[in-house]
Amino acid sequence: MMEEDSIPESGPIEGYEHRNYSDFIVDRVDNFQDKFGARHLYLAMHAAFPVSLPPELLYLIRENFQYDSKGNFLDIPFESVPDLLLSEMCQEVGHEVYQMEPELRQYLLKRLRESSRFGEERLKILGDFIAQYYGPDLSGGDLDSRNVAESQLWASNLQTDSSQGVSQLSELLEFAQDEGDNNLQYRLNNLLNQYEVPEEESELLE
I want to staple 149 with a disulfide (CB 3.0 to 4.6 A). Which of 75, 76, 137, 165 is the partner? Predict the structure, then answer.
């Protein structure tokens, strides 16, 4: 396993190339890493997966994703959760609910997906984690809890199987339009604005 002091504390992780993203977003991430270190950035990369971030969920992500895909201990500290939520990386969008802006989310997810320490498999594991966490709310709880759970699971599907995720959202959008369900249309469109959809699949949503 990798020794604790061998994890870089500053400087770009893996010399990542920043093409196709605004300097503002890249600088924000670089500044966050310069201030807090690479361990905090590892948490931020994982935190970009769910569409919204209540603190309880982020603490569980930090607790459950302490190792990279090769079994190396990441040593993400407890204080990284409030440090991330209260930084310029997140915005509070409701009572104790936080969110990343779309371009920042996409940039961090791309870094997670293309990282040799995590890769595509890490997104699938995150998807299983989100399904386990929010699954019970689909059949229980109040309407708001069910809506949140649906949005989290839709977002998860977009990241782990974009073809299936886009097909699901396309069918839901068609249903919402046919039924005149403006609330559902708003939720779906808001979700789609948060994530990148492959160009070859975006036609299904037109």
Answer: 137
